[in-house]
Amino acid sequence: MDYDEAKENDIDIIRKDFPVTKKKIYMNCGSFAPTPLSTIKSITDFLVRCSEEGPDSSSVQEYITSLMQDLRIILGQLINCEPEEIIFTQSTTEGLNYVASGFKWKKSDIIIARGGLHEHYANYFPWLNISKKYGVKLEEIKIDKNGFFDLDKIDKIAKNKNTRLITLSHVLYNSGAIMPVEEVGKIAKRQNLLYSIDAAQSVGTINVDVKKIGCDFLAFPGFKWICGPPGIGIFYCKKESASLLTPKYIGGESAIITDEKNLVYSESPQKFQTGFRNYLGIAGLASSLKYIQRLGVNEIRKMNMKVANEIIEEIRTIPGISIFGPKDEKLRSSIVSFAIDSVSPKVMVSRLEKNGIIVAERDIVGGGKKKAVRASPHFFNTTNEVSTLVQNIKNIQNMFG
Ligand SMILES: Cc1ncc(COP(=O)(O)O)c(C=O)c1O
């Protein structure tokens, strides 16, 4: 890193961009990250421009068109795809539903999913729904205690001539384990299967390359690790796979009508984008992405893992603690999940919040059978905050234990 970059990445400067850091210790970016001030300004500037020039004036419409084009280019650079392969959605869930509800499923079809109830519901319910609705078989692959699975098992089911699609989370929402998405991608390619990725917990915190993964579809939100505003998500749809999906909605922007009143879909991404979009979200996301790009995902990963490792190192010695997820740093994100025998995660999370520390309670074993406290720190968190977090955990344990 050269001097200028070092200055830009200076944690004190970064923290000034995130006002929450003045008041609280915020370690809940796996749920909803704060936006930097520059993003708030971009959204406000956009609204001011609309109100001064008229939202449906040609100048503002041209601005919106260029904003969307630029954003598609930046997103394409981020995940290594073409700008036309980027579709703006509301959320990860919406993108995954584009896939699940977009095919003509046959009763004989098989879908491979990791872990069933252990998967995030956003990447489980849409597939379960399809299986209930059309009789499609959902093969739920067994997982080990860290959320990993037997690749040979997937390979075996993938070879069944009825298997059509594999769905997988890139990073697990509960333990932060990084799934072997590239290896599964090779299986999908060998058997000519469709491959869909839930990247809600990966884009913005680790490198994501859709070509390396070899997926047809990948969905993620703008408002977790990219620090964008709520209500904007991205759906990557590989050019060659777009024709396989029928969009859930149809309208003026996504299709044309012929003289015989036949409806013909436009090319992707227009095919999936009916009506006006969330332009505020787009303006904000473009700004947040520039922030992420300026820091660089590799640098963000280093900063995040430093904090995550400090948390693990400091809580390891707490009596009665279980820390979930793989030990190997290469196999996990900055999510740190743990449970303490004597204090329920619910109580721990609410007590921490009373003390100004925001973390989350999440299932660590699917179906609500076992819960954990999940800390999901990002690049604005510090070593001092880790010490305060750990001291508070110890104090709460002493109070209840
Ligand atoms: C792995 C995973 N998938 C999907 C979602 C749902 O994301 P969204 O709110 O963007 O639909 C989440 C949210 O926490 C998640 O962690």
In words, what does this structure look like?
The protein is an alpha/beta fold and 401 residues long. The protein has two domains: 3-30 and 296-400, Aspartate Aminotransferase, domain 1; 42-293, 3-Layer(aba) Sandwich (Aspartate Aminotransferase, domain 2). The protein contains 14 helices and 15 strands. The protein has a seven-stranded mixed sheet with strand order 2-8-7-6-5-3-4, with helices on both faces. Helix 4 (37-53) runs antiparallel to helix 11 (279-295) and helix 5 crosses helix 11. The longest helix has 22 residues, at 58-79. The protein is globular. The protein binds pyridoxal-5'-phosphate. Pyridoxal-5'-phosphate is lined by residues 31, 91-93, 120, 122-123, 169, 173, 198, 200-201, 221, 233.
Short account of what is shown:
The protein has 401 residues and is of the alpha/beta class. The chain contains 14 helices and 15 strands.
